């Protein structure tokens, strides 16, 4: 028997997925069904681009619904209180600077489902977060880069 994959995420992230799922089921699915019915009324389905487009969209939406259900059902809500206050872990926000003297950067470490680097949320599976996990304020950490070299960063602060 295969073990289900768990999806670490914050309670906020789970709520966001739940809202997306509800929108897909309550709004988008019925709209696509209507478009398919209208497109069918045009006759010959073999050369009906509206029908094919709606069917493709329906397949995408149904796939996304199944994916969201699986993620929500197997969500592992992050408890940032389970680690020391000054320790980097899932659900915490960490500020660090690249040595010797780069500007500080701040990111919240979240599960891969919630990752959004432009919004300051990096995946726990990213090289940066992976290297920082379990480290504490003041520590210097070597972060491996894809090109085979590494950079040194110093942890400035950790908050919940």
UniProtKB/TrEMBL annotation:
Keywords: DNA-binding, Elongation factor, Protein biosynthesis, Transcription, Transcription regulation
GO biological process: DNA-templated transcription elongation; regulation of DNA-templated transcription elongation
InterPro entries from the UniProt entry: GreA/GreB_C_sf, TF_GreA/GreB_CS, Tscrpt_elong_fac_GreA, Tscrpt_elong_fac_GreA/B, Tscrpt_elong_fac_GreA/B_C, Tscrpt_elong_fac_GreA/B_fam, Tscrpt_elong_fac_GreA/B_N, Tscrpt_elong_fac_GreA/B_N_sf
Domain Transcription elongation factor GreA/GreB N-terminal: 8-77
Gene Ontology MF: a single term: RNA polymerase binding
One Pfam short name: GreA_GreB
Domain Transcription elongation factor GreA/GreB C-terminal: 85-159
Family in the record: Belongs to the GreA/GreB family.
Function (record text): Necessary for efficient RNA polymerase transcription elongation past template-encoded arresting sites. The arresting sites in DNA have the property of trapping a certain fraction of elongating RNA polymerases that pass through, resulting in locked ternary complexes. Cleavage of the nascent transcript by cleavage factors such as GreA or GreB allows the resumption of elongation from the new 3'terminus. GreA releases sequences of 2 to 3 nucleotides.
Protein name: Transcription elongation factor GreA
Annotated source species: Leuconostoc litchii
Organism lineage: Bacteria, Bacillati, Bacillota, Bacilli, Lactobacillales
């Amino acid at each position: 028997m295969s073990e289900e994959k768990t999806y670490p995420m914050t309670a906020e992230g789970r709520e966001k997925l739940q809202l997306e799922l509800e929108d897909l089921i309550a709004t988008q699915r019925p709209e696509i069904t209507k478009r398919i019915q209208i497109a069918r009324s045009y006759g010959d389905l073999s050369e009906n681009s509206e029908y094919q487009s709606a069917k493709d969209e329906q397949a995408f939406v149904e796939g996304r619904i199944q994916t969201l259900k699986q993620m929500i059902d197997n969500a592992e809500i992050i408890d940032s209180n389970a680690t020391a206050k000054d320790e980097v872990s899932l659900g915490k926000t960490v500020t660090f600077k690249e040595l010797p003297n780069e500007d500080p950067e701040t990111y919240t470490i979240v599960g891969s489902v919630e990752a959004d680097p432009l919004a300051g949320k990096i995946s726990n599976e990213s090289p940066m977060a992976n290297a920082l996990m379990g480290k504490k304020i003041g520590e210097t950490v070597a972060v491996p880069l894809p090109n085979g070299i590494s950079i040194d960063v110093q942890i400035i602060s950790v908050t919940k």
